[in-house]
């Protein structure tokens, strides 16, 4: 094989897991090449709030959170169960504090805790969460690289200009890691460069990667290994229909140029064991006139119904759990249409977090927002049985009067109350009794798929036939079968688990580079 360039580590993708792995490589003295097929770094991680879920770390202690690895493991196992390998679960939780130490004290990324509740009422839960965040960074600190960081959804998918003088959340993580990689002098960061295929030798070991970019097709040697952290297949219509029975890939939060399943294709080509292909990080999403669906959370009022005009869940559930309730209704045959019903008690804007906020006039013209002076009139506009919708609202208003939701226990969990604040807790069950009623079309969205390669405790991809590691091949993030299985334990689980397993993968690669060097000089 003739190589165009040679590195110790080649990383596919540029989200949080990918860049954390790349940083770990440079701090071990390795050379690394990051290939990103789009024109911006960050992937879906750049859209995120930036929460990273890693129990028992020093940032939590410093910021006054009473937490431990043991509590985190208790909670994780209580929620995930035995759906994924117990050894990998334990390794993830136990390695988390080491990764946080590395990110802040070696890579130089300033971190802080911000409150956001864990998602399940299970042993070990923290009502104010255990998530850490990269501190915001100014565009001035970032310099010319600011244009290389993927902007938030309103700008990236809707063309809405936003102030980028300060980058926070997921963008702060991406910006700070890109800056640290630049400063390392050991990283080659390539935009507009797509991974095409893995290169293997006669023994089946992955030795490099074929890419195509501005300089045409090239072969990159990876002496330690290749880390696939290129996201999932959420934007691939065919794969979504095949594995998840979803009607389209358009309702995902990811950018249309990402999430095409490139990693899954490469993994399948080398006989990798795959799992959880039917799973995503689900969420309710508001459907917009351009066909995109926007992650919607933090409901403050109103109810959600399906085509039967019935409530079917606690609307203030954590978003993945609400999304799973929607998915159950879809698979049960009650249709793909969901309606967010609310009144003008708190105004006529959408009483939930959705960025960008939907424009009522444009949504109305597109048939995605309806308004009427009565519930019966609203039901007629959206094709629901007026008597059924009236009965649903009457029952909900009765719960509001009693102060308790006997059907779904809305308002009883800390997560649902978190978005309102303690002084507004009673608003969790505010009745629908206004003078105008609105219905906004919701669909089942997601924050990416969570099925892919099965990995071991060192982030190595294992073979389907015998469960042994494929030499030289590693994966992290949404290119893997998530360590959390079919649940979403807490805010930042995707980023936290991805960063940890990328870190462990690079540690394993570093050992192999050292072994190969020793063998070559002996």
CATH superfamily of the largest domain: FAD/NAD(P)-binding domain
Instruction: Enter the CATH topology name of the largest domain.
Output: FAD/NAD(P)-binding domain
Please indicate the percent range of residues in DSSP E strands (runs of 2 or more): 15-25%
CATH class of the largest domain: Alpha Beta
* Biggest beta sheet summary: 8 strands, mixed
How many DSSP H or I helices? 15
Residue-averaged pLDDT = 96
State the helicity in percent bands: 25-40%
> What would the principal axes of the Cα set say about the shape?
globular
Report how far the terminal alpha carbons are from each other.
Answer: 23 Å
- Total beta-strand segments: 22
Radius of gyration: 23 Å
CATH second-level architecture of the largest domain: 3-Layer(bba) Sandwich
Judged by helices, strands and strand pairing, the structural class is alpha+beta
Number of domains: 2
Which regions contain 5 or more consecutive residues with pLDDT less than 50? none
Organism: Gordonia paraffinivorans
EC number: 1.3.99.4
Cofactor: FAD
Catalytic activity: a 3-oxosteroid + A = a 3-oxo-Delta(1)-steroid + AH2
Explain the layout of strands and helices.
Elements: E1 5-12, H1 16-27, E2 32-35, E3 52-53, H2 58-62, H3 69-80, H4 86-106, E4 111-113, E5 131-134, E6 137-138, H5 139-142, H6 153-158, E7 166-167, H7 170-184, E8 187-190, E9 194-200, E10 206-213, E11 216-228, H8 237-244, H9 262-269, E12 274-275, E13 280-287, E14 293-297, E15 303-305, H10 319-332, E16 338-343, E17 353-354, H11 360-365, E18 369-372, H12 375-382, H13 386-402, H14 414-418, E19 437-449, E20 452-453, E21 460-462, E22 469-475, H15 493-521
Parallel strand pairs: 1-2, 1-11, 2-8, 11-22
Antiparallel strand pairs: 3-5, 4-5, 6-7, 9-10, 10-11, 12-20, 13-14, 13-19, 14-17, 15-16, 16-19, 18-19, 21-22
Helix pairs in contact: 1-7, 1-15, 3-4, 4-15, 12-13
Catalytic activity: a 3-oxosteroid + A = a 3-oxo-Delta(1)-steroid + AH2
GO molecular function, one term: 3-oxosteroid 1-dehydrogenase activity
Protein name: 3-oxosteroid 1-dehydrogenase
